[in-house]
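hey can u check if this looks right to u? its 66 residues, i copy pasted from the old doc so theres a chance i mangled smth
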Amino acid sequence: MPKRKSPVKLQERPRNLLTLAPIMQKGGAHGKSDKALRRAERQHTQMSARGEFSSRGDGVLSLLAA
């Protein structure tokens, strides 16, 4: 003889749909990591230094062509 399933229990009060589950509270806007920001800053510094200390005056043009 199969067992009967227990009836579904109804909540005493309705759910508050305006609150978030704790797992959803850790989400948010994504951004670049600190390592990526440091690397981008270093690349920018290196590119500007190469343009400034170029032996010719077309250092900026060579960066744009690359």
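The CA atoms of residues 39 and 55 lie 26 Å apart.
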